[in-house]
From TrEMBL:
<keyword id="KW-0234">DNA repair</keyword>
<dbReference type="InterPro" id="IPR036890">
    <property type="entry name" value="HATPase_C_sf"/>
</dbReference>
<comment type="similarity">
    <text>Belongs to the MORC ATPase protein family.</text>
</comment>
<dbReference type="GO" id="GO:0031047">
    <property type="term" value="P:regulatory ncRNA-mediated gene silencing"/>
</dbReference>
<dbReference type="InterPro" id="IPR045261">
    <property type="entry name" value="MORC_ATPase"/>
</dbReference>
<protein>
    <recommendedName>
        <fullName>Morc S5 domain-containing protein</fullName>
    </recommendedName>
</protein>
<feature type="domain" description="Morc S5">
    <location>
        <begin position="319"/>
        <end position="458"/>
    </location>
</feature>
<dbReference type="GO" id="GO:0005524">
    <property type="term" value="F:ATP binding"/>
</dbReference>
<feature type="compositionally biased region" description="Polar residues">
    <location>
        <begin position="30"/>
        <end position="42"/>
    </location>
</feature>
<dbReference type="Pfam" id="PF13589">
    <property type="entry name" value="HATPase_c_3"/>
</dbReference>
<keyword id="KW-0175">Coiled coil</keyword>
<keyword id="KW-0943">RNA-mediated gene silencing</keyword>
<keyword id="KW-0540">Nuclease</keyword>
<feature type="region of interest" description="Disordered">
    <location>
        <begin position="1"/>
        <end position="42"/>
    </location>
</feature>
<keyword id="KW-0156">Chromatin regulator</keyword>
<dbReference type="GO" id="GO:0004519">
    <property type="term" value="F:endonuclease activity"/>
</dbReference>
<dbReference type="GO" id="GO:0016887">
    <property type="term" value="F:ATP hydrolysis activity"/>
</dbReference>
Length: 563
């Protein structure tokens, strides 16, 4: 409950005095340790501006003192903010997390999210802006957002762990400030929160302290909300002004002018640098895009024969944010736009780029207690096949891309080249960074089944792109009783080349005198040289009907002739 409402003007005199002190410090700044083309104030910047080095500092003695009458609690040291953010190996994955939060607001009426480069008013360095017109957050909602592991999102939304905001913002920059406004019934509020790794480091904090201030909106009048004392509220305001890009309370309030009646604005600043002292994110190469600088530089060594690859989406998503966001969501939005640097992102459906498209039904085995699930995979050749060797499955979870162009076929063979698929797998759980899945039994079964799909599609369709040779070989396969010891696999396979597309269960039961390419994942019946594919669950009972040391022959393989 709101205990008091204080006048914002009561802190103006103190703020004028603070601005004078800041100007004096700015005029006496020292040379920053990290050489960088960016403007820097050593009193308000970290020693290391590279993300992967920012956590390398000594932790001092505990400052917090346990007060009598209060329960002791476990502290979250500021260093954890950095170590927690290392779950994002890829900066675009962190950006995707913040876009997910905006997409989750579609159910509350959001029609856009803007992502752009802005200038930090204090040092004129680039900062990253995320802004949406969703439902916004009330004071309690902002505190939940700033807390670790707290989530009240519905089961059908993308976010679920309550950790994405912290990991993503801290992965992109050292500091973030949030402006949010919410209207609920007759009450409207707006709040400001500062999560600053720089503030915590420079002031030697041993607990994560997040300065926040709230306002109540009554008509045209905005009044600060005070929960405890005027001193506490004023102290929060002073810390925000000291460590944020804004120098006055008027500048803070101006940030709400373009938010509207509800919505959220996030500004990530003190962006991380690469090892060369340049911004990790490249805003200059394309004024309508944001690129990963190191990936762009690495691509300059691309050979001429690989230039065709440059134009393909599977290659562009490595360094182009616009390309990555275009395939980030499986289904097209009806009344929602992602606006990147002033231009809407056109959603791109990967299946639209495929030829000889087929749909395959897959029923994962979820267990007796779970409801049966049926999913549909779409698979085909890329339009550039066979001239472009791109392959892999794109796996989505709840409409969100988790694994783009997941390689399921050995790169050292042309077998399966050009085969691309799309599948939404809501029956498995993504990892915390949403760039991979948890390595569960369901995931491993899915991987096996997708490999089989790619192999089967290649064998039955490769003649359509004019690159195959059918070879009928008499291969003697000695089948022994089923052996559950997977360690025997290497001893059972006497082949100079890798066996591609062979399931783990089938490998255990076969002794191969010759290498096999493209053997089906499991065999339901073997007669007259015909191979019939089945589900992995059928393998055990199918194998039990095969007698030991039976001689089999006429396994027909498709051997590609282009390399």
């Amino acid at each position: 409950m709101i205990s008091n409402v204080v006048d914002l003007a009561s802190s103006e005199d103190e703020e004028h005095e603070n601005q004078t002190k800041r100007k004096k410090r700015t005029n006496n700044t020292e040379t920053p340790v990290t050489e960088s083309p960016l403007q820097s104030n050593s009193n308000h910047s970290l020693e290391f501006r590279s993300f992967w080095k920012a956590g390398a500092y000594d932790v001092g003695s505990t400052k917090s003192i346990h007060e009598q009458g209060q329960l002791e609690h476990a502290r979250v040291h500021p260093k954890f903010l950095h170590s927690n953010a290392t779950s994002h190996k890829w900066a675009f994955g962190a950006i995707a997390e913040l876009l997910d939060n905006a997409v989750d607001e579609v159910c509350k009426g959001a029609t856009f999210v803007k992502l752009d480069r802005i200038s930090n008013p204090k040092d004129h360095n680039p900062a990253l802006l995320f802004q949406d017109n969703g439902g916004g957050m009330d004071p309690e909602g902002l505190r939940q957002c700033m807390s670790l592991g707290y989530s009240m999102k519905a089961a059908n939304t993308i976010g679920q762990y309550g950790n994405g905001f912290k990991t993503s913002t801290m992965r992109l920059g050292a500091d973030v400030i949030v402006f949010t406004r919410k209207s609920q019934g007759s009450r409207a509020t707006q709040s400001i929160g500062l999560l600053s790794y720089t503030f915590l480091r420079k002031t030697g904090q041993d607990d994560v302290i997040v300065p926040m201030i709230d306002f109540e909106i009554s008509g045209d009048r905005t009044q600060p909300i005070m929960y405890s004392s005027l001193d506490d509220w004023s102290n929060n305001l002073r810390n925000i002004l000291e460590w944020s890009p804004f120098t006055s309370d008027q500048e803070l309030l101006q940030q709400f002018e373009d938010i509207g009646p509800h919505g959220t604005k996030i500004i990530v600043y003190n962006l991380w640098l690469n090892d060369d002292g340049l911004l990790e994110l490249d805003f200059d190469h394309d004024e309508e895009d944001i690129r990963l600088r190191d990936e762009v530089n690495r691509d300059k060594s691309l050979k001429k024969r690989d230039r065709l690859l440059e134009s393909h989406i599977s290659y562009q998503i490595r360094f182009s944010l616009r390309a990555y966001v275009s395939i980030l969501y499986l289904r097209k939005f009806k009344d929602f736009n992602i606006i990147l640097r002033g231009k809407p992102v056109l959603q791109h459906h990967i299946v639209d780029d495929l030829k000889y498209l087929e749909q395959i039904t897959y029923r994962p085995q979820l267990g007796k207690a779970s409801k049966e699930v049926t999913v549909r995979a779409e698979i085909g050749f890329i339009k550039e096949a066979p001239h472009l060797r791109v392959s892999g499955f794109n796996i989505y979870h709840k409409n969100r891309l988790i694994r783009p162009f997941w390689k399921l076929i050995n790169d050292h063979t042309s077998y399966g080249s050009g085969v691309v698929g799309v599948l939404e797998a809501n029956f498995i759980e993504p990892a915390h960074d949403k760039q991979d899945f948890e390595r569960s039994t369901l995931f491993l079964r899915l991987e096996m089944r997708l490999k089989q799909m790619c192999n089967d599609f290649w064998k039955s369709h490769c003649h359509l792109i004019g690159n195959y040779t059918v070879v009928n070989q008499q291969k003697k396969l000695s089948i022994r009783p089923f052996d559950e010891n997977a360690a025997n696999l290497q001893r059972e396979l006497s082949a100079d080349q890798p066996v591609i597309g062979l399931s783990a269960n089938m490998q255990q039961g076969l002794h191969l005198d010759q290498p096999v390419v493209g053997l089906a994942a499991n065999v339901q019946s073997l007669s007259n040289g015909n191979t019939v594919l089945g589900e992995p669950s059928n393998m055990s009972r199918n194998m039990s009907s095969v007698q030991p040391s039976s001689g089999l022959s006429a396994v027909s393989d498709v051997v590609p002739c282009f390399l």
